[in-house]
Amino acid sequence: MKVNTQIQKVDCDWTDVKNECRNTVNKDATDTPATDSFKRRLLISEHSPIRLLSVKWRWEGIFSWVSVHFARHWLGWDKWVSTQRSDRTGVDRNKQPQDTRVNMDVRANAQALINVSRFRLCFQASNETRECMENLKQEIEGREPEIAAVMVPNCIYRGGCPEFTSCGLWSEFVEMTENKEDLLDIDKRYELYNRYYNEKKLK
Question: Does residue 153 contact residue 68 with C-beta atoms inside 8 Å?
Answer without folding.
Answer: no
